[in-house]
Design goal:
Order of helices and strands: HHHHHHHHH
Helix content: 55-70%
Number of strands: 0
Number of helices: 9
Largest sheet: none
Structural class: mainly alpha
Radius of gyration: 19 Å
Distance between the termini: 34 Å
Length: about 230
């Protein structure tokens, strides 16, 4: 007789590759929806914290902060607009959006604008540094929380994985290339580049990766006999 595995030896949940319908049928949906939307709101708040810290923004936010210098948009509206432009790039990459994809495209920008309306930028250097570091850490947590809900990837994440699949390059190489590109564009447009940008680029991956195992929801992966892999 074989003993059941103890909680200390039970495998950790894995990040599943599910299609949009399978994501909704994978179980624990109410809990996963809460995690998704809390994570997306927290992501928008993290952007606002870095803005108020005034030490530089995350790479994509750098580009968006430069964009609003030339078009009549708020930062949050620019986040939404860029998200939908990125989603257009999913089409030739044949990426399939999920609930998190559309929710991310809309909610992060709304949350960023709402948070900016509530937060002031302090004068004290220590307070600004705390806001910047707090924004980076919160972004890592928010990323792990919404990805861990297993309801799909955000627009920028899907662009990264789609390009990696099409080019054969590693995810790290694609992500580095994308982030260098948007930072350069942001700098040219007059966006907020600084030590916070470097801090974000160096630490956001390790922070999110460290938190993801604790925030990843275990879901049921449906097996359909004879069905192609992309229905999973």
């Amino acid at each position: 007789m074989t003993n059941a595995p103890s909680s200390s030896t039970r495998p950790r949940p894995a990040l599943a590759d599910l299609g949009p319908v399978a994501q909704l049928r994978a179980g624990r949906l109410p809990e996963r929806l809460v995690r998704l939307y809390v994570g997306l709101v927290a992501y928008g708040l993290s952007i606002a914290l870095m803005v108020r810290g005034r030490f530089g923004l995350a790479p994509w936010s750098t580009m968006e902060s430069g964009l609003i210098r030339h078009v009549p948009l708020t930062l949050g509206q620019a986040v939404v607009a860029v998200s939908f432009v990125v989603l257009l790039l999913w089409i030739p990459l044949r990426e399939v959006p999920g609930l998190a994809t559309v929710s991310n495209a809309i909610l992060v920008g709304i949350s960023a604008d709402a948070s900016l309306g509530l937060l002031d930028s302090p004068d004290a250097l220590a307070a600004r540094l705390a806001l910047t570091v707090g924004g980076v850490v919160l972004c890592g947590f928010a990323t792990a929380l919404y990805i861990g809900a297993q309801l799909g990837r955000g627009p920028r994440d899907g662009l990264m994985t789609g390009l990696a699949r099409r080019t054969g390059w590693s995810l790290r190489a694609v992500r580095t290339g994308l982030e260098i590109t948007v930072v350069v564009l942001g700098f040219v447009l007059g966006g907020a580049v600084g030590v916070g940008t470097v801090l974000f680029a160096l630490t956001i991956g390790p922070i999110a990766q460290a938190m993801l195992p604790f925030l990843l929801v275990d879901v049921r992966v449906p097996v359909v006999p004879g069905a192609p892999d992309d229905v999973r």
